[in-house]
Structure formats: structure tokens, C-alpha cells
Amino acid sequence: MSERDEHGSKRVLPFIGGPGVPPIAGGGGGPHDPGMDARVTRLEDQYGRIETLLRAIDGRMGQLDGRMGQLDDRVGRIEDRVGRIDDRVEQLGDRVRHIEIDVAELKGRIVNLPTTWAMITTMIGGQIALAGILLAAFRFAGVH
Fold it and tell me: Which burial class, exposed, middle or buried, applies to 131 when counting CB atoms under 10 A from its CB (0-12, 13-18, 19+)?
């Protein structure tokens, strides 16, 4: 049952309407489906509902477009604010660096200050030295 076409390809079934094959004759009423009218009516009703839904969706999309424009404006303002905040943070960073330098300088000065015990020892040592000098002066002067 296989045939070959003009290109030499094998065909299992002949192509209907191909060269040398007459077209199928029309005519007759064909099979009648009694439920076809009801199904078509139902499809038309569903099409109307779908069309209504699509219009509603289209309206909502228009609203969303307007809201997206508002959101774009808000995002632009937020970006501006963030830019200003970045500038302020950079300025604060510079100020903090200056403060760090000042604190380091103060720490250096504080480290070089004598401790309380060193101050007390120096004071006591100075008083003992002064007392020794006064005693020597009184003895030299001959005061008893």
C-alpha cells in the first residue's frame, strides 16, 4: 500500500487533494448535532462575560498605570532623600575623624600626666627636702 511521491519519498497513505486526486465532492447535510445550538449559545454567553472581565481588567490596568506614575515620583523623592542622607553621613564621617584625632591627642596628654601617687610622693619628697634645707640653715645660723 505504500506509494512513492514525485520526490521518491515513501507514502503510506496517498495525500488527499494532491496531484491526480480529485477533490472530495461536497453536498448533503452532514451529521446533525442537536446539542450544537445550546453549546454555541453557552460559548457566546461566556464570551460576553469574558469580554466584560477583560474590560474590567483593562480599567484596572489604567488605574495601575496612574499609580505606577505616582510610585515613580515617590521613588524619585526617596532617592533624593537617600542622596542627601549619604552626603550628611559623609560629612559626619569627616567630623568623627576630626574628633578621633582630638581624642587621640587628649589621650596622649593624659598618659603623660603624673599619677596621684607620683604627685603625693613628689609633694612629700619636696616637703622633706625643704625641712632638711631649713634644718641645715638653722644649724648654720646657729639657732637652736
Answer: exposed
